[in-house]
Amino acid sequence: xxxxxxxxxxxxxxxxxxxxxxxxxxxxxxxxxxxxxxxxxxxxxxxxxxxxxxxxxxxxxxxxxxxxxxxxxxxxxxxxxxxxxxxxxxxxxxxxxxxxxxxxxxxxxxxxxxxxxxxxxxxxxxxxxxxxxxxxxxxxxxxxxxxxxxxxxxxxxxxxxxxxxxxxxxxxxxxxxxxxxxxxxxxxxxxxxxxxxxxxxxxx
Amino acid sequence: xxxxxxxxxxxxxxxxxxxxxxxxxxxxxxxxxxxxxxxxxxxxxxxxxxxxxxxxxxxxxxxxxxxxxxxxxxxxxxxxxxxxxxxxxxxxxxxxxxxxxxxxxxxxxxxxxxxxxxxxxxxxxxxxxxxxxxxxxxxxxxxxxxxxxxxxxxxxxxxxxxxxxxxxxxxxxxxxxxxxxxxxxxxxxxxxxxxxxxxxxxxxxxxxxxxxxxxxxxxxxxxxxxxxxxxxxxxxxxxxxxxxxxxxxxxxxxxxxxxxxxxxxxxxxxxxxxxxxxxxxxxxxxxx
Lengths: 204, 288
Hints:
Strand order of the largest sheet of chain A: 10-1-11
Number of strands of chain B: 0
Radius of gyration of chain B: 20 Å
Structural class of chain A: alpha+beta
Shape of chain B: globular
Order of helices and strands of chain A: EHEEEEHEEHEEHHEHEE
Helix content of chain B: 55-70%
Largest sheet of chain B: none
Helix content of chain A: 10-25%
Order of helices and strands of chain B: HHHHHHHH
Number of helices of chain A: 6
Number of strands of chain A: 12
Largest sheet of chain A: 3 strands, mixed
Oligomer: heterodimer
């Protein structure tokens, strides 16, 4: 069974948010609806190195959408079965079934499903499934000027880009087995939340 | 916390209140030697089971306010095999029907012999519903809720509100509780208030030490901390008031304890709502 996944190169991302805007444009999303979000993670300070002090400042960007998890906690907990996983691994919402209880947005560690107050139902990244079915790329992937985004079968992405690293502030991947592969920025320091303060992570 | 989450605060509190009433009323039916009631039939406003049905009905209606598309609400029963939310909604229906059966059988023939057993079945349905409600909030991605405190909080709310309501029904002369059972119930009420106070403090201590992800929630100051202190004060006052009733009713003959039970009920309702407000306000998820 195929498992479609996103690849994100944090070392190349300039944080321009073109992916975010391409997603909004493609899906005609209103204010407050951001199915792909760019986070800026920064921190560090001065550290003592022998008798000298050196700076330890880091900053990197993270472009996140739904990760179409292998074990999607949203699908498992949706009371109406509005959320379902396709054969190719894409997690979709049937908005005709959704009751807008928002439970999926509570439990998703990536903040993927978002409530739309105008329609009263949830919405999320669907991998531009209509484009995929036509053999095209998702809009965010094609829009990225830095070519920091890619997509494909999860195993093929791992083969192409190497094992994805789990970087802060992403949650423990064992919770939902997300379908993504990340090339970490040199400044990213693993998954220990202790390396960055919460104030240092924001949606830009 | 968004405005819509207020409906969840009210829904869970009312539903647990409803379950608690049935549990304690059933227990009294078996513990008291002569558990006579002041109502003639099942459909009497003096019947705590009717209040319980009103509460679970009200809770269900309030829960609709949380939904973006209430018209689709029936579809929420579609995932009984995987979703605790689906199971909870089914359990609400079963619990409500069981209460209606208790009331209708009482209405048909007054004191039927099998009513006690129907009450036991209702209590079991209530406990199942309570378990479903707890399970919904035990999620690995929500650290503030994924702890021992969630079941303890829900169970203590159920026991607390249910017990004090049955005691108030007794004070009003609508439900008879033997004096010895009454004393035990008062001691148990004090014990629940004590457990709620200690567990609330320990949970607050735990919250203040959690890393709160990108939401950057603050638990040790601001309005959250203010509501926490307010709730603690209410718990303390309620605890002292219950202690006062226990002390005086054992040494003063003809002590007018019922005058205390009404304000105690009001205090407990407010502190439970404050506790539930804190519970929902503490939401944050791991990750981004």
